[in-house]
Amino acid sequence: MIHFDPLYFLLALPPMALMMWAQWRVKSNVAAGGRVAANMTGAAAARLILDRAGLQHVRIEPVEGELSDHYDPRTKTLRLSPEIYGRRSAAAVGIAAHEAGHALQDATNYGPMALRALAVPAATAGGKIAGVAIMGGFLAMWIQAYSFASPLILLGILGYGAILAFQVINLPVEFDASNRAKRLVADLGIVDAEGGEWVRKCLNAAAWTYVAATLSTAATMLYYILVYTRMNDRR
């Protein structure tokens, strides 16, 4: 029962191609935007945005890793990678401003962000369960133990459903943070017109990676739903 299935590749290839394109766009735009000067470093830009919003209590810390930048709402800490924290470039301030946008969302109780926090446990559990359950289901199909295969495949589908729900909820959170960043870097004079254009390019490219990841999960989930349906039709 475990064999090459053209249907999987038919569903998976388009979002996979989109993801590869989006990742290339992010790397190329960040590299090009990194050569466009800004008036301050990424860390200074984030600090300015936070202070103007009355968020002096939010800490900014360097963190290891490439593009590992993130905001932690539990500790009210904004962490920036080395190439973002200390560089004076359009790419650096754009990414830092995006993460500061998440801190602003947190401070204003932005609805989708609160909903995303509620979805995290289910998505985490779904991520741990989905792959194991699907593998177990295919193994059960291979030995023709269909009474075990069906519930395992269904459990895997539910796991992917939890991941997909989180990713869908996350889209407006990321888009809103980027929109805030584009506006703030211009309003606060962090970049000039050219720098603002490169901030827009970097953040728009990053947004496509979230869209591609969501479509990839949806395609994978759809494939296993079809497998589950075909399996039960044959019984």
UniProtKB/TrEMBL annotation:
This is Zinc metallopeptidase. It comes from the Bacteria. The chain crosses the membrane at residues 7-24, 118-140, 152-169, 207-226. The keyword DNA repair does not apply. Pfam families: Zn_peptidase_2 (PF04298). Coiled coil: none annotated. InterPro entries: Zn_peptidase_2. Keywords: Membrane, Transmembrane, Transmembrane helix. The lineage of its organism: Bacteria, Pseudomonadati, Planctomycetota, Planctomycetia, Planctomycetales. PANTHER family: MEMBRANE PROTEASE YUGP-RELATED.
